[in-house]
Every structure is written in structure tokens, then in C-alpha cells.
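User: Design a sequence. Structure:
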């Protein structure tokens, strides 16, 4: 047998074995890393999707919360994990926002991780504690200008969606708010409800139950259109023309994960997002289901990275 023919047979056999192996995937539990504390938007979305793909792929997809460093601890763990499909990073726009802000992440989201899909997109909510004497965007701006640095707003960390939303608000209004970082939207919501924090630009999922119960006040939403679940709440743009941002959620795996496994995971997630009860759950949280292909997700990630790199530079947002 010639060397060329021998190599050709080896390549063909390897391809056959990889395809056969991916068809058996998953043959053991899969961990889904979430970079925020339980109860936040990323955690809520991950659990909704994870439960359904556990059913469809007949294997446990286990949520593992690894909060800290604006979710970058979880992202580094995912980037360093074996590329075998048994570690998934359930991520958000926060991971894209981190790249232009942190100089020493220890991983590169474009080089070390591969997109599966964008799951959903939700507006953030400018929410305040009911004791705050400001019921409109105009009144919040006036209060922040009258008492510079005294009005606090909570975030899930430096370079989180809440942080970018707050900094964009400050840039466009001249309001002076002080940022307080937390390890996730869950702990942030607890302090806002308790009156230890006066305001936030919270993602919709963790804050909306408190809005409905009257424990916090929804002043405005951050997208350029009103939210279906909060139709009476205005947009910030109605007072501050041009203001618009949202938080989206997605999933990634280590960069060298086989194409077959990426496609299998993508199909399982897209199918889960099409289920009536998942649609209903997402809608109740104010989320629009997205469900993109890996290729569409890559294009979207690049455009978002360009957008938030410009914002980070203009607002001088630095994480280190």
C-alpha cells in the first residue's frame, strides 16, 4: 500500500469514526456553564432551554453556575474545556461586551469558542425602588443632575448589559449615576426590592415578577419600541431620542468541537424554542425568540462586537 493511499484510508476512517461518534452524542451528562448567579436572566434562559434539550436528546444537561468577573470565569472554563460537546457556555451579550473592556480575559471569544445559536432577545428595564421620588425618565435625569453621584444603579458587573445601558444613558443625558456591581441579575433584584439599591437597567427576566408585584417601579424600557409585556411603560427613546439597547442570550462550545455536534446542539435548541410552552415562558419574560443557525450567529456576534467596542471607547469603560 502506498503512503498516499494509506493516509487517505486513515483520513476516511477518522471521518467515519467522528460521524459515528457524534451520532451517539450525548452519551453522558452535559454541563451548561452560566457565568452569573441563579435567578438572573442568563440563568433563567439556560434552565428553560436546558430542560427541553435534556428531554429531546435523552441525556441530562446540567446547569452549573460559575459567577464572577462579569461571567468571564465561566467563559474561560468553557474555552479551556475539551472540545467534545460536553461543555456548553450559555452566554449573553455581556461576553461580547467584555472583549473591548478587559485586556486580560485569558481567552478570546472569537478564537476559542464556537457559536451554536442566539436564543432570545429582551429589553432592559430602567427600574427604581418605589421610594425614589422619580416616576419618569425626565424626573430620573433631573434627580441625578441635582444630586450628582448619589443615585445608584445596579449592574451584573463591569461591562455587563446593565452597565452599558447605564453608561449610554449617562452619555446621552448628562445624568450622573453611580454604578454598583453585583454577581448577577438575581442578587441585584433582591437589593433593589429591599431598597438597598435605588435603580437599575435590569434585564427583563429577573425584574419583571417584581414589577408585576409592585415591589419595584418600571420607569422605561431600553429598546426602541415598547415591550409587549409592559405596554404601558414608555421607552427611554421617547424622552431621549436615539437611545436603544437590548440584552440577548445564546450558546457556544469550545472552538474545535466537531461540526456534527454543533449542528446537533443547534437543532435541539431551535426545536426546543419552537415548543408552545417554551414560547409562552419566553413571552411571559418579555423575550423575543431568535433561534439562529451557527453561521448567522457568527455574523451577528461580529456586528455586536463592533457596536459595543465603539461604545466602550466613547464611554471609556474599562474592566482592568
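Assistant: Done.
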Amino acid at each position: 500500500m502506498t503512503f498516499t493511499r494509506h493516509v487517505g484510508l486513515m483520513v476516511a476512517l477518522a471521518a467515519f469514526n467522528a460521524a459515528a461518534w457524534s451520532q451517539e452524542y450525548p452519551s453522558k451528562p452535559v454541563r451548561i456553564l452560566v457565568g452569573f448567579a441563579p435567578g438572573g436572566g442568563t440563568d433563567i434562559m439556560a434552565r428553560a432551554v436546558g430542560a427541553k434539550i435534556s428531554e429531546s436528546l435523552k441525556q441530562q444537561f446540567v446547569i452549573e453556575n460559575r459567577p464572577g468577573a462579569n461571567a468571564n470565569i465561566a467563559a474561560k472554563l468553557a474555552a479551556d474545556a475539551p472540545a467534545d460537546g460536553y461543555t456548553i457556555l450559555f452566554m449573553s451579550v455581556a461576553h461580547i461586551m467584555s472583549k473591548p473592556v478587559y485586556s486580560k480575559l485569558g481567552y478570546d471569544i472569537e478564537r476559542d469558542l464556537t457559536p451554536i445559536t442566539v436564543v432570545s432577545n429582551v429589553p432592559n428595564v430602567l427600574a427604581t425602588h418605589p421610594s425614589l421620588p422619580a416616576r419618569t425618565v425626565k424626573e430620573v435625569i433631573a434627580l441625578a443632575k441635582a444630586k450628582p453621584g448619589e443615585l445608584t444603579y445596579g449592574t451584573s458587573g463591569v461591562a455587563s448589559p446593565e452597565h452599558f445601558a447605564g453608561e449610554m444613558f449617562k452619555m446621552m443625558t448628562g445624568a450622573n449615576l453611580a454604578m454598583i456591581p453585583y454577581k448577577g441579575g438575581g442578587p441585584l433584584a433582591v437589593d433593589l426590592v429591599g431598597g438597598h439599591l435605588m435603580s437599575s437597567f435590569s434585564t427583563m427576566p429577573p425584574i419583571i415578577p417584581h414589577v408585576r408585584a409592585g415591589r419595584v417601579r418600571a420607569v422605561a424600557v431600553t429598546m426602541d419600541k415598547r415591550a409587549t409585556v409592559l405596554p404601558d411603560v414608555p421607552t427611554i427613546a421617547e424622552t431621549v431620542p436615539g437611545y436603544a439597547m437590548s440584552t440577548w442570550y445564546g450558546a457556544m462550545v469550545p472552538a474545535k468541537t466537531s461540526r456534527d455536534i454543533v449542528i446537533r446542539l443547534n437543532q435541539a435548541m431551535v426545536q426546543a424554542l419552537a415548543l408552545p410552552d417554551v414560547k409562552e415562558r419566553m413571552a411571559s419574560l418579555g423575550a423575543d425568540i431568535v433561534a439562529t443557525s451557527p453561521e448567522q450567529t457568527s455574523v451577528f456576534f461580529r456586528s455586536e462586537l463592533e457596536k459595543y467596542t465603539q461604545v466602550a471607547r466613547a464611554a471609556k469603560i474599562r474592566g482592568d
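The CA atoms of residues 96 and 267 lie 23 Å apart. The chain has a mean pLDDT of 91.
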